[in-house]
Structure formats: C-alpha cells, structure tokens
Design a protein that fits this description.
Blueprint (H helix, E strand, L loop, with lengths): L1 H16 L8 H16 L6 H16 L4 E3 L1 H12 L1 E4 L2 E6 L2 E7 L4 H5 L6 E5 L2 E2 L7 H8 L6 E7 L7 E6 L1 E4 L3 E8 L2 E6 L6 H14 L4 E5 L8 H9 L7 E6 L6 E4 L11 E5 L6 H11 L4 E4 L7 E7 L5 E10 L14 H13 L16 E3 L6 E3 L8 E2 L9 H8 L2 H20 L3 H7 L5 H11 L6 H6 L1 H17 L1 H8 L4 H10 L11
Parallel strand pairs: 11-12, 12-15, 15-16, 16-21
Antiparallel strand pairs: 1-18, 2-9, 3-4, 4-5, 5-6, 5-7, 7-8, 10-11, 13-14, 13-18, 17-18, 19-20
Protein name: PDZ domain-containing protein
Family: Belongs to the peptidase S41A family.
Keywords: Hydrolase, Protease, Serine protease, Signal
C-alpha cells in the first residue's frame, strides 16, 4: 500500500507537469520537494532510489507501450541482442535431464576452435560438478559468461569416450547471428531468414546475398516473420538494397525531433529481380519499415498476415546511476505517408492482448475480419494500389495460419520442450550413424527415414509426463514429424538446415514460390 501511495503521488507530479518540464522548472522542484519530505518526515524509513525506480516505470508505462526503464544491472544484457555480441565461451546449450548439453558451438567462437562438439555434455565447471545438481539456464550463463581473455575449465562427457575430456576455454567476444538461414530455395530463388536488425546484420546479409548470387540467385524471398525489429539505421540499409537511388525509405517525426527523411542510394545489391517479403503478426518495427517501403514503391510482393503495428521510434538515454531509458521520441512513416502504429489508448495490457485477440476474432484465418477505416487507406507510389496504415502492414497476399494441425497434445510437448529434448537425445545416440549415412543437407532432407521415429518420440513424451492420445497425435502427426526432422537436421548441419526442411511444408513459403510463377509481378517495378 505504501509503494502504491508513493507511486501514485509521483505519477501525479509527473503527468501534470511533464509536458511543460522544459518551460516550467516548478515540476522538477515539486518532485524534489516531495522526495525530501518523504525522506525527512514519513513514519517509516524509505528507500528513495526504489521509490524513484518504481515511479519511472509507472510513468513510462502510462506514456506508451514501448518506452521502458532498464536498471543498471540489466543494461549490458538488454543491449546484447542488438549490439550483436557478448563475451563468453560460445555455445548454444540446453539442459536435458539435469545435464548441460551443447546444442552447437557458435561458429568462430572459442569452444568451436577447441573442438567442442554438438552433443557434448558439460559435467564440471572449474572442478565443480554441474550435472544432476539442478543447474538452471541462468546458472549456466553466470558460470560460462565472463570478460574476454578470462579462462574457465570444463569437463565434458562425449559419447564413445570412456573418460571425461578436459578443456580450458579462453573467453572471447561471441557473435549473435541475425541471419538464421540462407540457401537456394529452388533454381534462381534465394531465401534469407532474418531474426533481428542488429549492428552486425548488414554484414551477414551482404555475405548471404553475395553467396546466393554466386549460386545463381535471380529472385529473392526475405523472411521477416517473427522479426520484432531492432536498429532503425539497419532497416534503412536493408531497404536500400532493394530500392532505386533517391527513393524515400522512411521518415520520422516527433515533438522534439524535426522530420527526418531517409533515401535510398545507388549502392543497392538487389534493385532488380523479383522480391517477396514474408511477414506475420510477429513482424514489427524495423521489419515493418522494410516491408512498408518495398510495398509502397511497388518493388515486391508482401505475403503473410498483418504485421504487429509498431510505428514508434525509441532512443536510449543514460541516467546518472548507469541505468537507462528507452524513450519513444518519434513516429515513423512509410514512403506513402502511412504510420502503422496500432492504437494504445487503452493501456499497455490491452495493447499486447490485442495481438492474441487476432486469433479469437478470426483475423489469422480470414482477412475479412480486419476492419480499418477509410481514413487509413493509402496508395502505392508507382501503381496506385491500395495499402493501409494505422495497424501494421497488410500483406498483398494473405496466407492464413494453419490451425488444422494443432492439438492439445502438440501444445503440451512444445510447452514442455519435449520435441527439442527428444531431438537432442536422438542425436546423441545416432549422430555418427547419421553423419555416415547422410553426407549433406540435401541427402538428409530427401532420404532421411526412421520408421520408428514417431513411436520413439511418443514413448519419450510419456516418460516425460505427456500421455499418449492417438486421435490428437494423428491430427498433428505431420507437424510433429516435420519439427522432429527439422531439429535433427539443425543439430547435424546448422540452423539453415532446419528451415530448408521445415519450409517445404510451410504455406507462406510455398505461396511465395508459387507467386514467382504467377502474373503478380507484371504490375510491379521489377526492372
């Protein structure tokens, strides 16, 4: 109750004066006076720092859904995904049956250089046993991450080796990759899956595009599904790859920040050729800038489902104690003038809940369930096609979510992580045999067969507490099989292999391949 009272008073002080803070110093004085009186006269002792942090969070939450406060202890970790690197040993791991299992060493990292392999089990860290003692994901991170140049000793159990293998790993800067997959989807068609817009993303994308061009890429699928965004400048650089010189990519505008326009240059690597961008309800911010620019200039086809709808731009401001604010400073607009930000007047909780409501109201399976006012209709800049603002990017071609193969059984094995755990266990037992039998990704995808795979999985799931349900298993059989094979492929050949396999039964991906052969591109600017 005490915290609620203090927070309420601080919010009152902030919200009644914040808009005039630059002109009226009384707001700052009022807050300082309030804190001083509480510290001096309140009946119980209080922690002023805690009061201020609570107030900051509450005020930001009241402003908009994307302005956030980051405590000092969390600043570095919060920025790692966008900076594109952290310092540690360089492994992707999972905890399987109370044991740390290496899913894969990160390419170029210190663990890979020492010969640590996928499937290795970490039994000891610095002479302390870590298997069978209840280690959590955070415990692993706390023990294996550390400053560049520092060392950590690990003892590893490897299948086929009688004794534990000892490694001394010198920690280093570890890259966080943005490109999940890059491969030729079919002759002439390259595919790139991007998971975030980070500081290193363009280096990865340029490398992927060069490699695909060398392999004969004439047309491209850019998969931005589930990509929640990142750096604005990276979105601009990526859009520049597709647009012609001097075409507007995006403009931003805010109360304290004047209109700033960003234009394409002559350096685009893929200004010609057919382009398809895949989006869904998880595509946000920078993903919407790229897909919006491509759509507005009639440069390519956007396929999938309506994107998230985040049209606000944040800037990070450091506070005196090392904590930070990510404060919304402007709105961004696509070249046709669209701001795709969804309404958020009903508060943060309702704002995020509305994404889940899209399933309940039928939008994910039927685009007719989306109702946007005429005032949000815009026209593309070359062909005058109708596009929409005010609630995300509406795709040119709608692909419904496939709800027919889902089941309660499938939901349970996903939520419990059983599919992933089983694939790790299966690889641990069969890796050498699989590597001998399938020398390449294509061989695995085309020829892999284990007639007992589903039976083994069902038995494994039963041991993990998920009862067998034949009707639901039959309903989700293709989904389960595809997921299992994709994860096994990933463990053998890397993340691209997962998408090479699972995309074969992906509706949006297959619609993209079909669209390349249709007359859709006759109406666009592909030359």
């Amino acid at each position: 109750m005490r915290k609620i009272l203090f927070t309420g008073l601080l919010i009152l002080a902030f919200t009644t004066n914040a808009l005039h803070a630059q002109k009226d110093a009384e707001a700052e004085k009022k807050i300082q006076s309030f804190l001083r009186y509480v510290e001096l006269a309140y009946v119980d002792s209080v922690n002023a720092n805690e009061l201020v942090e609570t107030a900051i969070r509450s005020v930001l939450e009241d402003l908009d859904p994307h302005s956030v406060y980051i405590p000092k202890k969390d600043v570095k970790r919060a920025n790692e995904p966008l900076v594109g690197k952290f310092e540690g040993v360089g492994i992707q791991f999972n905890i399987l049956k109370d044991t740390i299992v290496v899913v894969s060493p990160i390419p170029g990292g210190p663990s890979e250089k020492l010969g640590i392999k996928s499937g290795d089990k970490i039994i000891k860290i610095n002479d302390s046993t870590v298997a069978g003692v209840g280690f959590t994901n955070q415990d692993v991170i706390d023990n294996l991450r550390g400053p560049k140049g520092s060392e950590v000793d690990v003892a590893i159990k490897r299948r086929g080796e009688k004794k534990l293998l000892d490694f001394t790993i010198k920690r280093d800067k570890i890259p966080i990759y943005s490109v999940d997959a890059s491969y030729m989807a079919e002759p002439g068609v390259g595919y790139i899956k991007l998971n975030r817009f980070a500081a290193t993303s363009m280096d990865e994308i340029n490398e992927a595009m060069d490699s695909l061009k060398d392999a004969g890429m004439e047309n491209m699928i850019l998969d931005l599904r589930g990509n929640s965004g990142g750096y604005l400048n990276v979105a601009i650089e990526l859009a520049d790859q597709f647009l012609k010189d001097d075409q507007l990519i995006v403009y931003t505008e805010g109360r304290a920040f004047k209109r700033a326009e960003q234009y394409a240059t002559k350096k685009g690597k893929f200004e010609k050729g057919k382009l398809i961008v895949l989006i869904d309800e998880g595509s946000a911010s920078a993903s919407e800038i790229v897909s919006g620019a491509v759509q507005d200039w009639d440069r390519g086809i956007v396929i999938g489902r309506r994107s998230f709808g985040k049209g606000l731009v944040q800037k990070e401001f450091k506070l005196s104690d090392g904590s930070a604010l990510r404060l919304t400073i402007s709105r961004y607009h696509t070249p046709s003038g669209r701001c795709i930000q969804r309404p958020y007047e009903d508060g943060k909780k309702a704002y995020y809940q509305s994404i889940y409501d899209r399933l309940d109201n039928g939008e994910l399976v039927n685009p007719d369930s989306i109702h946007l006012p005429d005032s949000l209709h815009y026209e593309t800049l070359k062909k005058g096609r109708t596009v929409y603002g005010g609630g995300g990017i509406m795709p040119d071609i709608f692909v419904p979510a496939d709800t027919s193969r889902g089941s309660d059984y499938y939901g349970k094995v996903i939520r419990k992580g059983i599919i992933n755990d089983f694939s790790l266990d299966y690889l641990d037992q069969n890796r050498k045999k699989l590597e001998r039998k399938y020398s390449s990704v294509d061989e695995f995808i085309n020829n892999f067969e284990d007639k007992n795979l589903m039976d083994k999985f069902i038995a494994y799931a039963e041991d993990e507490g998920v009862e067998k349900d034949e009707d639901e298993i039959e309903k989700s059989k293709s989904l389960l099989s595809n997921s299992l094979k994709g994860l096994i492929a990933r463990g053998l050949y890397g993340s691209s292999a997962y998408y090479q396999l699972t995309n074969k039964s992906d509706d949006a991906f297959n619609k993209a391949l079909e669209t390349f052969k249709s007359d859709w591109f006759d109406q666009l600017e592909t030359e």
